[in-house]
């Protein structure tokens, strides 16, 4: 078994396989050993399919950039015939799929060896991963009393702990970037429709949701996005085409950029002092690299956007539960979904079709407001979260008031006030692990760029990684 397995990123592991220094079988053995060793404390890996992984190796792996590298799929979306899913819910437990999704086809073509799924909150809603279907919360490798984030929290915990070097995630309101921030990883949300959604959906949450990846390095994220980019057959709309690609972009620094520095929430309210200090630390680094950094923040209807986001997601949650009940032929039974999902159904029942369309219209209007802000700016710099990673239980799905859970004082949008704005606008955004506080907790730095400027943003992230490397930072549980 490879002794230094967890020290490599996915690109590095693939190189070892390519050079004959290890094999896909040995790497899978190492990953499964890590699951056995670490997951009892983390509760991050579920539905392990060792047989499917070994069958894939025996059949012969595609000759892609990650040939032979162990990999995990989020237990939400990324539908795959060989990988059933709980979708974070007792109602949807052990769902199987008749055909593979387009995103899974493209991920598989990179040569990865998928062997299971990672935990997610029910419905992908919330900045913590504490779904009842898994029998307990998923915990943060940096501090087991804290959440690794959500909704791709299991992916974040698994990568940070060294179980895998990279994992699939998805992001409809920060669900890649929140775990990246909480777990000291790199998380990149691409421009709307950059990655395929079909054939199971045409768009997620009115176009706000997109697949993504949790990685330890920028180069891994760049390679995954290059491999998976592009519309699938019948997509309702496409992202602006890429240039030479993300990997080509990170081979050189970006042009010197105009960076707007916002050290508050987008509505001007203060954030935790550790997070504010992290933003200013990042600003100094950007300035040292020659970028022009000046204080500025967008004056947008952030409150209206948050309420519209809440309405859209409540309707989406209610629709999925209703469709499941209709397919099986009987209504929801007590205990099949958690209280927050019941609250989403309650809230959706108060909304008409016209209300839903008005919410989508508000999201579109907000996107135009943010686009106008970016006319003189290339990048908006903020914290990823307004606080350090939250304690387990703070965002448990025991709350039935769905609107309060999202928008109430001290609740989700106060904790994560930045990420969802760029799901609404569709712009690319990334969480970069530049800072750890005095408690040893990672604090992500959030960078957002103009619509379609994915390659330039990825290049900037690579420049920051080169200036202040982070891969050597590992939680004690992983050592």
UniProtKB/TrEMBL annotation:
Protein name, entry field: Amidase
SUPFAM superfamilies: Amidase signature (AS) enzymes
InterPro entries recorded: Amidase, Amidase_CS, Amidase_dom, AS_sf
Location of the Amidase domain: 26-457
Organism: Albidovulum marisflavi
Family stated for the protein in its record: Belongs to the amidase family.
């Amino acid at each position: 078994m490879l002794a230094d397995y967890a020290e490599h990123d996915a690109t590095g592991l693939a190189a070892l396989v390519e050079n004959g220094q290890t094999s896909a079988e040995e790497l899978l053995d190492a990953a499964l050993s890590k699951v056995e060793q670490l997951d009892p404390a983390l509760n991050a890996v579920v539905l392990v399919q060792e047989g499917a992984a070994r069958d894939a190796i025996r059949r012969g792996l595609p000759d892609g950039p990650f040939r032979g590298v162990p990999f995990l799929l989020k237990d939400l979306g990324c539908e795959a015939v060989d990988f059933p899913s709980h979708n974070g819910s007792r109602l949807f437990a052990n769902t199987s799929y008749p055909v593979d999704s387009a995103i899974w086809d493209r991920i598989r073509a990179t040569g990865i060896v998928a062997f299971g799924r990672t935990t997610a909150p029910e419905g992908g809603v919330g900045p913590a991963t504490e779904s009842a279907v898994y029998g307990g919360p998923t915990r943060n490798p940096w501090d087991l009393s804290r959440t690794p984030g959500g909704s791709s929290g299991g992916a974040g915990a698994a990568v940070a702990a060294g179980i895998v070097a990279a994992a699939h995630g998805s992001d409809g309101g920060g669900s890649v970037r929140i775990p990246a921030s909480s777990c000291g990883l790199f998380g990149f949300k691409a421009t709307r429709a950059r990655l395929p959604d079909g054939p199971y959906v045409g768009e997620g949450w009115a176009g706000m949701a997109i697949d993504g990846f949790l990685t330890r390095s920028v180069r891994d994220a760049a390679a995954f996005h290059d491999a998976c980019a592009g519309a699938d057959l019948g997509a309702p709309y496409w992202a602006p085409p890429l240039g030479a690609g993300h990997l080509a972009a990170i081979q050189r620094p970006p042009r010197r950029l105009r960076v707007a520095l916002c050290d508050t929430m987008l509505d001007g309210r203060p954030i935790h002092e550790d997070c504010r200090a992290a933003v200013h630390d990042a600003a100094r680094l950007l300035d040292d690299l020659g970028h022009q950094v000046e204080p500025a923040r967008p004056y947008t209807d952030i409150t209206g956007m948050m309420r519209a986001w809440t309405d859209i997601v409540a309707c989406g949650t209610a629709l999925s539960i209703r469709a499941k009940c209709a397919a099986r032929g009987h209504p929801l039974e007590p205990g099949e979904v958690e209280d927050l999902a019941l609250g989403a159904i309650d809230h959706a029942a108060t909304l008409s079709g016209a209300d839903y369309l008005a919410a989508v219209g508000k999201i579109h209007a907000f996107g135009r407001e943010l686009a106008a802000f970016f006319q003189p700016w290339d990048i908006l710099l903020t914290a990823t979260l307004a606080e350090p990673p939250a304690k387990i239980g703070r965002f448990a799905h025991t709350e039935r008031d769905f609107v309060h859970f999202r928008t109430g004082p001290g609740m989700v949008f106060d904790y994560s006030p930045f990420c969802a704005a760029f799901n609404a606008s569709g712009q690319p955004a990334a969480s970069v692990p530049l800072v750890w506080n005095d408690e040893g907790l990672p604090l992500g730095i959030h960078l957002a760029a103009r619509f379609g400027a994915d390659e330039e943003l990825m290049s900037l992230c690579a420049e920051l990684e080169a200036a202040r490397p982070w891969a050597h930072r590992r939680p004690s549980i992983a050592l």
